[in-house]
Amino acid sequence: MLKNTLKSVVDSVGIVDVQCSNLGNLLLQEQLKKSQTGIRMKNRNKQNLSYFSGLIINSSLSSLLLALILLSFVFLQTVSASEQKPTGPDLHKFWDKNCSECHGHSADFSRKFLEIVDGKLQGPMHKDSFKTFLNNHYIRRNQQEAIYDMLLAENLIEPRYKNECSSCHKKAAEFVRESITLRDGKILISKEDTPVSEFLESHRGLTTEDIEFYMALLTRVASEVYRP
Ligand code: HEC
Ligand code: HEC
Question: Domain limits at 7?
Answer without folding.
Answer: 1-83
